From TrEMBL:
PROSITE patterns: UPF0017. Pfam families: Abhydrolase_1 (PF00561). It is a single-pass type II membrane protein. It comes from Struthio camelus australis. Residues 128-383 form the AB hydrolase-1 domain. This is Monoacylglycerol lipase ABHD2. It catalyses: Hydrolyzes glycerol monoesters of long-chain fatty acids; a butanoate ester + H2O = an aliphatic alcohol + butanoate + H(+); a triacylglycerol + H2O = a diacylglycerol + a fatty acid + H(+); 2-(5Z,8Z,11Z,14Z-eicosatetraenoyl)-glycerol + H2O = glycerol + (5Z,8Z,11Z,14Z)-eicosatetraenoate + H(+). Belongs to the AB hydrolase superfamily. AB hydrolase 4 family. The keyword Transmembrane helix applies. GO terms for molecular function: acetylesterase activity; monoacylglycerol lipase activity. It is found in: Cell membrane.
Length: 426
């Protein structure tokens, strides 16, 4: 027996070393891909020193506290973005709202969902959040439902635009869908709210593409800013013209995201194929069967925009479409408090685009740019180790900022009334 034991071959030590090296390599890749060594920190803030910014820093703790995503995986912008894209939110509520229908001048039917507040507002005022979702999104998306439910509990009425053609159970009534920067439907919703609730004030909120639309809407005319307390834009890219080149690059897998988003847009457009491409006297003259053929083979949003989307409004080129529909040329015309939120690890918004909100917030006292290290594209999940919480950092920040602006306006109004009273006594 002793001789048999001595003759049994043993695994060479070098093989154990290879196994250890393989395990170490896998762990290294996991640590790098998940950014586990990335620190948690407060968001980077760019703003002008003013009475308003000092009040906001004091009234919004989330601006100065660390944003801490779930430890194991949420320091990856890709995972945050993928989880948002696939799940939206976890354990999302189902707020009850009423769907409203508005007929547009060209025969299109705009729809939005109206949600009443479920508690008294912190300053006892009537405030309505007018909300524009991201690309091809609507009020039934989980991230919108989660945010609306939280806003209702904080005393806000919410009106959520359903992008034209995005709801699967609502047919188009004219040969036109939503586009990157068309503000017609959002403006119609805002006008309805102003007319129906003459005492209400507005907090304007836009997510991703919706951020572009709301900023463009406010900057188009000074009248659009009447009764508006503030505007919050989350994860938008500011300039489609400057973004299009970065969206064709494989850096940060943007080309892959571009393909996925284009595929989703194709499905939505094709679901309305009969209205958009059928025999309709009202359809754009330049929209033809050839464009439908090109749509089938499109692999990027730019191809879809060039062959279909720009033609809804008669733009002669993709360049003209992106220039005219981006909010870049309108941002400097916004005078209400403006919060621009992006994530440094957003795989859809190239870092070069962040120079736009940075430059604006360095010049304008009403603008603050908030840039946390993590969050991905509309993710911003929070949690302990593995599982995210239902409410995100983004949900809480938007409501906290709106609350602070309401308090700021009430304080200014009180001071003004006091000054007038003192002046009258003199």
């Amino acid at each position: 027996k002793m001789s048999a034991m001595l003759e049994t071959p043993e695994l060479p030590a070098v093989f154990d070393g290879v196994k250890l090296a393989a395990v170490a390599a896998v762990l290294y890749v996991i640590v790098r891909c998940l950014n586990l060594k990335s620190p948690t920190a407060p968001p980077d803030l760019i703003y002008q020193d003013s009475a308003l910014s000092r009040f906001l820093l004091k009234s919004c703790p989330l601006l100065t506290k660390d944003y801490i995503p779930p430890l194991i995986w949420e320091k990856s912008g890709h995972i945050q973005t993928a989880l948002y894209g696939k799940m939206g939110r976890v354990r999302s509520p189902h707020p009850y709202g009423l769907r409203k229908y508005l007929t547009m001048p060209d025969g299109a039917t705009a729809t939005f969902d109206l949600f009443e507040p479920r508690s008294e507002h912190c300053i006892g005022e009537d405030v309505t959040m007018v909300i524009c979702p991201g690309i091809a999104n609507h009020s039934e998306k989980q991230y919108i439902r989660t945010f609306v439910d939280y806003a209702q509990k904080n005393g806000y009425r919410c009106a959520v635009l359903n992008h034209l053609g995005a709801l699967p159970n609502i047919e188009l009534t004219s040969p036109r869908m939503f586009t990157y920067g068309c503000t017609w439907e959002f403006g119609a919703m805002v006008n309805y709210i102003k007319k129906t609730y003459p005492q209400t004030q507005l907090a304007v909120v836009g997510f991703s593409l919706g951020g572009n639309i709301v900023c463009k809407y406010l900057g188009e005319t000074q009248a659009n800013q009447e009764r508006v307390l503030c505007c919050v834009s989350v994860c938008q890219g500011y300039s489609a013209l400057r973004a299009q080149e970065t969206f064709m690059q494989w850096d940060q897998c943007r080309r892959f995201y571009n393909f996925l988003m284009a595929d989703n847009m194709k499905k939505i457009i094709l679901s309305h194929r009969q209205v958009l491409f059928g025999d309709n006297m009202k359809k754009p003259q330049s929209l033809s069967d050839a464009d439908l053929s090109k749509l089938y083979t499109a692999t990027s949003l730019m191809q879809i925009d060039d062959n279909v989307m720009r033609k809804f409004h008669g733009y002669s080129s993709l360049k003209e479409y992106y220039e005219e529909e981006s909010c870049l040329q309108y941002l400097h015309r916004i005078y209400v408090p403006l919060l621009l939120v992006n994530a440094a690890d957003d795989p859809l918004v190239h870092e070069s685009l962040l120079s736009i909100p940075r430059a604006l917030s360095e010049k304008r006292e009403n603008v603050m740019h908030v840039l946390p290290l993590h969050g991905g594209h509309l993710g911003f999940f929070e949690g302990s180790v593995l599982f995210p919480e239902p409410l995100t950092w983004m949900d809480k920040l938007v409501v906290q900022y709106a609350n602070a602006i309401c308090q700021w306006e009430k304080t200014k109004s009180h001071c003004s009334d006091t000054e007038q009273a003192v002046s009258g006594q003199e």
